[in-house]
Write a structure and sequence with these properties.
Blueprint: E1 2-8, E2 21-29, E3 62-70
Antiparallel strand pairs: 1-2, 2-3
């Protein structure tokens, strides 16, 4: 349902200033929606419905970016 890739910048980059650490992340939610042209198929639907969806709004895919700075 959610995937995150995180990278912590090397500490030696911040030895001579006031920053302690910086972490950069890319975040994706609902990335497993199979194909935009495959209508009514969503992996979020219960297995009793075999992944087929009718009468509901589709899940939305989102991608984000995060920066975490420690002083």
């Amino acid at each position: 349902r959610e995937a995150t890739i995180t990278y912590r910048l090397p500490g030696k980059w911040f030895e001579k200033n006031f920053l302690e650490s910086v972490t950069v992340s890319a975040i994706g939610r609902n990335l497993a929606i199979f194909h935009k042209n495959a209508r009514h198929i969503d992996p979020e639907i219960s297995s009793a419905d075999l992944g087929f969806n009718s009468g509901q709004l589709p899940s939305t895919r989102s991608v984000g970016f995060s920066v975490n700075v420690k002083f």
